[in-house]
Design goal:
Length: about 70
């Protein structure tokens, strides 16, 4: 889990969070555990500062368009 977070952070640093990507995901993330959708700043998600309202976990994945 930590490795994944670090990898994400490095990726974001390199990409500098392109605005297009921000728009694509609309800053909406889904809790990996309970699937609750939350709106948050991606940087805060990656830093683990955002916690799920429901299960208090801080592992999220970006909401992908289908
Ligand atoms: Zn949750």
């Amino acid at each position: 889990m930590l490795k994944e977070k670090k990898w994400l952070r490095e990726n974001y640093k390199m990409a500098k969070i392109p605005e297009a990507q921000n728009r694509l995901f609309k800053n909406v993330f889904v809790c990996k555990r309970c699937q609750l959708k939350i709106k948050a700043n991606p940087v805060k998600i990656l830093e683990g500062k955002v916690k799920c309202r429901k299960c208090k976990k801080n592992s999220f994945r970006p909401l992908k368009k289908k």
